[in-house]
Every structure is written in C-alpha cells, then in structure tokens.
UniProtKB/TrEMBL annotation:
Protein name: SAM-dependent methyltransferase
GO molecular function, one term: S-adenosylmethionine-dependent methyltransferase activity
GO biological process, alphabetically ordered: methylation
Keywords: Methyltransferase, Transferase
Length: 232
C-alpha cells in the first residue's frame, strides 16, 4: 500500500456490499447532472481520484477522451482494471490523493466521490489536484450532508466526532469551492441489500438501531449530498 494511504472502512473490507450501494445510489442521476452542469466531460481527459473498484470509470469513458482511475488499494485496483479491460481509453494506476502518477496540467476534470481523504486536513491532496488540472479544469468532490435527510441523520448519530456540515462548508468555501446541494436516494431491490449497505456505512450499534426502527417493507432511503466544485 502506498505511503500516506488512509483506509476506507466500507469498500476496502466489504467490496460486494459497496457494489450494491453503488448500484442503489442516486438512481435518477441527480449527482451526475450536478457535475455535468459544471463541466460536461465529453471529449475531455478525466481523472477519477480514489476510483475504488472502478464503478464510475465506464460511465465517464462513454464520452470522455481518456479516463484515468487512481486507487491505492491493490485488490480494488485489480477489479477496476478487469472491469475496464475492453475500454482502450481507460487506464487504472496506483496512487494516492497527494501523489498521482500523472504529469502536471494533464487532465480537465478530477472526480472525487466518497473519498475519505477529502475535507478538513486534505490540503496536500488539493494541492496535487491543482498541479494536475489544466487551465479551466474543474475538480468535483461528492460528499454526504449530515445536516439533512434520513441517511444524514443516521450518519450524524453514528459519527458524532467527525467534522460536522458547518465545518466542512467553511473548509470548502475557504478553499475556493462552490456547493451544489443534491437531495437524492438509495433504492434497493431487496431488504437484504438495504441492510447490508446500512451495516457497512454506520457503526454496528447505530446500524442495529436504525434498522430496528425501519419498517420491513422499506426499500428506499432519502440521501442528501453535496457536490463541491472549483475551476482553475
């Protein structure tokens, strides 16, 4: 594992459940619409920083000129490589937020989704993004908003010691980023899928509490997110 890597507690240890979550999240494409409203990636060179198992690489590759996925975890990187092996415009590399193996001013859009190295304390990663972006390039960061929505309330209960939404907003604003709030949802096929995802996203005691209170027929959960963006 590269130096400076911070573990991601969900996808690193529960890859299959995280894949279920990726399929369930934002079925209406509201987050993608928010990103596209800032910068359409058609014909551009795109970097997915912290690409995990490569879930989003294929979507970018449908219209981008090139797509590079950077991921520190070797098993996830191998999955991302396999799932994009027939896409000649996609490359998957080892790297971290603060050390990306690409030249200066080589990409037009950097996409960082649920990447745990972003937020207060991620200044080295943001400096690296600034090095990589061409003039007019855009960095987008997709994060959750624990101040609203059902999942936001659960997250706030489960992680009371993490920086709250006000602290994160102050951080991103001070770094020159703008916010697009998005209210989307998880939509699951089965209750088993819902429970598996809740169980990897929340501490076990909190997950048990919220699942016990949730009606057994529930398959959708409203989810508030933020798309933070900055243009060079």
């Amino acid at each position: 594992m590269p130096d400076g890597t911070r573990p991601s507690p969900n996808i690193w240890h529960h890859t299959e459940a995280y894949e279920v979550e990726n399929r369930a999240f934002d079925p209406d494409g509201l987050v993608e619409d928010a990103i596209g409203s800032v910068r359409d990636w058609a014909g551009l060179d795109v970097l997915d920083l912290g690409c995990g198992s490569g879930f989003h690489l294929r979507r970018f590759a449908a219209s981008a000129r090139t797509v590079t996925g950077v991921e520190p975890h070797p098993d996830l990187r191998a999955i991302a490589t396999r799932r994009t092996r027939r896409l000649p415009s996609v490359t998957v590399l080892e790297g971290t937020a603060q050390e990306v193996p690409l030249p200066e001013a080589s990409v037009d859009l950097v996409h960082s989704r649920w990447a745990y190295f972003f937020g207060p304390g991620c200044e080295p990663g943001l400096a690296e993004v600034a090095r990589l972006l061409r003039p007019g390039g855009v960095h987008v960061v997709v994060d959750n908003d624990s101040s609203r929505s059902t999942f936001g309330g659960w997250f706030a209960r489960g992680f009371p010691d993490l920086p709250g939404p006000e602290a994160k907003r102050e951080f991103w604003a001070s770094a020159g980023y703008r916010r697009i709030p998005v209210l989307t949802r998880w939509s699951f096929d089965t209750r088993e899928d819902l429970e598996s995802v809740v169980s990897i996203e929340l501490p076990t005691p909190t997950a048990r509490e919220v699942l016990a209170d949730l009606p057994g027929t529930t398959l959708e959960i409203d989810y508030a997110g933020d798309v933070w963006w900055r243009r060079t």
